[in-house]
Amino acid sequence: MVNIKSMIKIIKYNARILFGVNTIVAALFVGAMPFVFSLNNIEYSQIAKIAELYLPIIGIILLSYITSIERNNLIEEFSYTKKFRFNYIFLIRFFINTMLISFLLAVLFLYAKYQGGIFPFHKVFIGCLVTTIYLGFLALTAYNLTKNLSVGYMIAFSYYFFEFSTKGKYTKELYLFSLLKDSFSEKIYLAIGGIILLIVNVILIKYHGENL
């Protein structure tokens, strides 16, 4: 059993090693939105485009690599995480970066509201968050299957561009960009899909993942 003190220690440790280039790139990407797009008095149709077509990319950036750290870092970090079951480490890292994603998105949308934005905050925020995590999980699942981060990026971006070009013609209820059609029901199915992918990744890590 892992006691509370050890759990707090491992959460702090993983928060530290997760912080790096990916975190900085994601923060800069979100931070650039007010400079690229005018958020003053922004209406739903405009914020939906930002929420669906641009911001979900940070899910790929922040979730795809969370099980690859031991392959890229020093033996010291491998030895430290060896004390804990790696599926627990995975869930901790997922929680940390999901909280970061939520924070970045919330700050941007709240800023847009502060600038006079006319849109339903919770609908846009939750819809964007679901899409962001779902895309990130696609990249992560591909990595855990292949142990190749480039494949993870390729799969996620291929799906992204497929959805962009077909506009949900084939994916129907799993259409990534449903907010563009002012529809939220697809996000429920994406959330269910995300939960399934989370379970799949836990299983992959437990039986076929890093030998920690």
TrEMBL record:
It comes from the Bacteria. Keywords: Membrane, Transmembrane, Transmembrane helix. The keyword Membrane applies. The chain crosses the membrane at residues 17-39, 51-68, 88-112, 124-143, 149-166, 187-207. The keyword Membrane applies. This is ABC-2 family transporter protein. The lineage of its organism: Bacteria, Bacillati, Bacillota, Clostridia, Eubacteriales.
